[in-house]
Amino acid sequence: MGDLRLREEKLRRGIYLLPNAFTTAALFAGFYAIVQAMNDRFEAAAIAIFAAMVLDGMDGRVARLTNTQSAFGEQYDSLSDMTSFGVAPALVIYEWSLHGLGRWGWLAAFVYVAGAALRLARFNTNIAVVDKRYFQGLPSPAAAAMVAGFVWLAVDNKFPMQDGLLAWTAFALTLYAGVSMVSNAPFFSGKSFALGRSVPFWGILLVVAVFVFVSSDPPLVLFGLFVIYGLSGWVQWLWRWNRVRRLQQERRIDA
């Protein structure tokens, strides 16, 4: 009986290979983005951040599908996210454009990094008490996709780097992403969508259409989609605020 209990404890303390392999791959992609940015290969750096985003989305789903969730995996995933979606995007956009703004450039990059760290810390502490349908604040992968998407779009279309407007646009976008991560704006999580349930035939056609749409111009389409998502939480927040205000006014009238 004692040997069985000891064996069970060892299994609980063990590290599940499959989901943590995806987390490690996401961490590698984030580190690769940093290395490529230091070598002035900004398009490769931006693509690596998007690859990290895909891998990060897979590790949690793999863990749930295979019933291999663990406390170690959760902590490892957060540390990986901090590198891939916190430090990497800030360094990429700083090396690409923000360094030309002097201290304003590195301050904007730091605001983004601090926002990502605070966002992840709050997510870990509030995971059991928030509405599963919505994220509290912009998720760090989406914020990273906005920043990396802008770099990819600008490099792919050869935007003029001499234009000061480009650097200040990058500055504003970086600040917006950093502040949005620590906001209370509700962003749709997509966790209510179950991959295991059956869908109509047109659902498969819709997936194919999305792939075709994204592949038509990946930098433009991906950046546009994540900008829309990055604004959606604030639209939802304003709609809720306006609804609460109307209800309060109606109660005052009724009283």
UniProtKB/TrEMBL annotation:
The chain crosses the membrane at residues 15-35, 104-122, 134-153, 165-182, 194-214, 220-239. One of its GO terms (cellular component) is endomembrane system. Pfam families: CDP-OH_P_transf (PF01066). Its main location: membrane. It is found in: Endomembrane system. It is an enzyme of class 2 (transferase). Keywords: Lipid biosynthesis, Lipid metabolism, Membrane, Phospholipid biosynthesis, Phospholipid metabolism, Transferase, Transmembrane, Transmembrane helix. One of its GO terms (molecular function) is CDP-diacylglycerol-serine O-phosphatidyltransferase activity. Its EC number is 2.7.8.8. One of its GO terms (biological process) is phospholipid biosynthetic process. It is a multi-pass membrane protein. It catalyses: a CDP-1,2-diacyl-sn-glycerol + L-serine = a 1,2-diacyl-sn-glycero-3-phospho-L-serine + CMP + H(+). Belongs to the CDP-alcohol phosphatidyltransferase class-I family. This is CDP-diacylglycerol--serine O-phosphatidyltransferase.
